[in-house]
Design goal:
The chain is of the alpha+beta class. The protein has helices at 5-17, 31-37, 48-58, 69-81, 113-116, 121-124, 137-152, 163-169, 179-188, 222-227, 255-258, 272-282; strands spanning 42-47, 90-96, 111-112, 264-268, 285-292, 311-326, 329-335, 345-349, 362-365.
C-alpha cells in the first residue's frame, strides 16, 4: 500500500490530536519533540496493543515460521519492548518527508547507497562484528550513524563512530539488545570515533575481536572450522564503564570534542515505499529479524526459508542499504555484523515482512531540521 497526499495529511492531523500522549510515545524522540524539530515531516501514532494484534492477524497464516500463537505473541512483544522507552503505550513512525519522492516512478527499482554516496561506500558496506557480546545493536547502530554522518558531511568525514562507546554507555555486553538506549545516548550525549578491535583508530576502538557466532547455538565447529575463527561461546565478556576519556592514548582529540551528536532518532514507516524513500534520502536504516538456524550461514542469493528450521533468538540486528529485484523476487540489500560471513552484504525478501524485517525500523539524522 502506498500513501496518498490525503492519507499523509490525515495521519498528521491524527498525530497532532494525540499530543496528549506524546510523553508515552517514545520509540524515538517524543512526538511533540519530533514535530517541533521537523515540522515538515509527517508522523503516525499507533497504540502498541493494536499494533501487536494487527501484526498477529496479518501473519496468522505463517506464525513465526511454525511457532505457536502464544510464543509468537511473546516474541513480538519482546521486539517492541526493546525498541521503545520504558512505559511507552504508543508507537510513532515517520511517514512523510519533503525529501522523499511522492511519485513511485521516480523511485528506482534498484538502489545501492554505496553507489549514490561513493565517498562513504567503505562505511556503508560494512558493520563491525560485535564479538562475543550478547547485544549487537551498538555495532549496527554505530554503523548506521557512521554512514549517515559521512553522508551529512558530503563524504568529508569518513571515520567510524564507536560501538565501544554505545556498548558501555547505552547497553551492556552481557545483556540482550535494547536499541532504544543506544539511540538515546547518540542523541543526548553523542558518539566519538572508534575503529575495530586492534586497529588503534579513533577515540574508542572496540574491545572484542570478531568470532564464530554459531558457537552460541551449536557445539559443532560449523563456520569456525571453515574460517578459523575463535568461538564466541566461552569467551570472557564483561560490562564496560561509560568512558570519561579516550581509551586510545595516541588519539589527540579529547573525548567530548570528538563526539558526533544526532539531532533526532525515529522509527520509519512499515510501508515498503516509505522505507525505500528514507534510505534514498538519508542512507542506511537499522532493522532486525527473528533469527532461525538458517541464518547461521550466508545464503546463496536471496534468503529463502528452509524447511524444519529452528527458532534461535528474538532479534538479529543489521542495516539495510538498498534494494533490487532478482528472478522476479524483490529484495532488500543488507549488511550483517558477523565476520564469519566474509562479504557481509546479503539479500532479504522485500515487501513481505520476511521474518519481521519491516516490523520496527529505526534511523536518525544529524543537524537537519525540516
Amino acid at each position: 500500500m502506498e500513501f496518498t497526499t490525503a492519507d499523509v495529511r490525515m495521519l498528521a492531523i491524527i498525530a497532532i490530536s494525540l499530543l496528549a500522549v506524546a510523553h508515552r510515545t517514545q520509540g524515538s524522540d517524543s512526538l511533540e519533540e519530533l514535530m517541533k524539530k521537523h515540522p515538515t515531516w509527517s508522523f503516525e501514532v499507533e497504540n502498541i496493543e493494536t499494533f501487536i494484534q494487527k501484526s498477529l492477524n496479518e501473519h496468522a497464516h505463517n506464525l513465526g515460521g511454525g511457532l505457536d500463537r502464544g510464543l509468537t505473541e511473546k516474541i513480538l512483544r519482546e521486539k517492541v519492548k526493546r525498541s521503545l522507552a520504558p512505559g511507552a503505550t504508543h508507537i510513532v513512525r515517520k511517514i512523510g518527508d519533503p525529501k522523499w519522492e511522492s511519485d513511485p516512478l521516480k523511485v528506482p527499482s534498484y538502489f545501492d547507497a554505496r553507489e549514490k554516496w561513493k565517498d562513504c561506500a567503505s562505511l556503508i558496506g560494512h558493520v563491525e562484528d560485535e564479538g562475543p557480546c550478547h547485544t549487537d545493536t551498538p555495532a549496527a547502530i554505530a554503523a548506521v550513524i557512521s554512514d549517515r554522518y559521512c553522508i551529512y558531511t558530503n563524504g568529508t568525514f569518513r571515520d567510524r563512530l564507536s560501538q565501544e562507546t554505545l556498548l558501555g554507555c547505552g547497553e551492556l555486553c552481557t545483556a540482550d539488545p535494547y536499541q532504544y538506549y543506544s539511540w538515546l545516548y547518540a542523541k543526548e550525549t553523542g558518539v566519538p570515533t572508534g575503529g575495530p578491535h586492534g586497529s588503534s583508530k579513533g577515540c574508542m576502538p572496540y574491545t572484542y575481536a570478531g568470532c564464530d557466532h554459531s558457537s552460541w547455538y551449536t557445539d559443532s565447529k560449523g563456520l569456525a572450522g571453515k574460517n578459523k575463527m575463535n568461538a564466541c561461546k566461552g569467551q570472557l565478556i564483561f560490562d564496560h564503564d561509560c568512558p570519561k576519556k579516550c581509551s586510545n592514548q595516541k588519539y589527540k582529540t579529547p573525548l567530548d570534542k570528538d563526539r558526533k551528536k544526532l539531532t533526532t532518532f525515529y522509527m520509519t514507516s512499515r510501508n515498503e515505499f516509505c522505507i525505500r524513500n528514507e534510505i534514498m534520502a538519508y542512507g542506511s536504516v537499522l532493522t532486525s529479524v527473528i533469527m532461525y538456524n538458517d541464518f547461521l550461514e550466508k545464503p546463496d542469493g536471496i534468503f529463502q526459508k528452509k524447511t524444519n528450521r529452528k527458532f534461535l533468538a528474538w532479534d538479529k540486528y543489521f542495516k539495510i542499504i538498498g534494494w533490487g529485484e532478482e528472478n522476479g523476487i524483490k529484495y532488500w540489500l543488507c549488511v550483517h555484523t558477523w565476520d564469519t560471513w566474509g562479504d557481509k552484504v546479503f539479500k532479504m525478501p522485500r515487501g513481505v515482512n520476511y521474518d519481521w524485517i519491516e516490523f520496527m525500523l529505526t534511523a536518525g539524522v544529524f543537524d537537519f531540521l525540516g
